[in-house]
Amino acid sequence: MKRLDGIKACVFDAYGTLFDFASAAARCQDVPDQKLGALTTLWRERQLQYTWLRSLQGNFADFWQVTGDALAFALDSLDIASPELHGKLMDLYLTPAPFPEVPSVLAQLRKAGFRTAILSNGSATMLDSAVRAAGLSDLFDAVLSVDAVQVFKPHPRVYAYGLEKLGLRADEVSFQSSNAWDAYGASNFGLRVVWCNRYGHRPERLPGAPDREIRDLSELPELLAPPPK
């Protein structure tokens, strides 16, 4: 496969791409085993839906509130709602487990000369907590939250903000996301995109077309030509 050339920076989505959003519920012993899968799925689905709906409404609330609201809906829907369980799960969401290959991939990219950054719906506080807990603080040049633009991905303003903060053109950035809607949104904006299709999803019927598709981030370094000097 021909490598992507001209790339100066690798920018990553956070949840589902670098960090396993399912790890919060999986680590909570108070969630009934028979409802764990349903809780993880419903919590994530509603979390994403609330970001899109709030963007359409022009009624921004940070990702911490959105995540809490989505969890409350999921717990109530599964008849396991309690303030204690809600609190435990939200605390665990602050320290999501990174996917196994993430530290080594980031180290490889930086050794090769690429700049690295996060561009995420997550709030600044959530991202700082996740990055620190995973021991990844020294592996990013920038950790960027949509808090700065008050709208969620895939709004074009988010991707434009990332370019502005990095001081790069769209064709100089490789954007990695496991979320197909995010990958297609970034591609439609003009970024070079590698869709990290961890979950085996079908291609979206949306504007945009990711440049490459991989199964996990371990395949990324081989896809990128060395950055221009």
UniProtKB/TrEMBL annotation:
Protein name (Swiss-Prot/TrEMBL): (S)-2-haloacid dehalogenase
Protein family per UniProt: Belongs to the HAD-like hydrolase superfamily. S-2-haloalkanoic acid dehalogenase family.
Gene Ontology molecular functions: (S)-2-haloacid dehalogenase activity
SUPFAM superfamilies, A to Z: HAD-like
Domain of life of the native organism: Bacteria
Pfam families documented for this protein: Hydrolase
Catalytic activity: an (S)-2-haloacid + H2O = a (2R)-2-hydroxycarboxylate + a halide anion + H(+)
Its biological purpose: Catalyzes the hydrolytic dehalogenation of small (S)-2-haloalkanoic acids to yield the corresponding (R)-2-hydroxyalkanoic acids.
Family annotation (InterPro entries): 2-HAD, HAD-like_sf, HAD-SF_hydro_IA, HAD_sf, PGP-like_dom2, S-2-haloacid_dehalogenase
Keyword hit for Oxidoreductase: no
Enzyme Commission no: 3.8.1.2
Assigned keywords, A-Z: Hydrolase
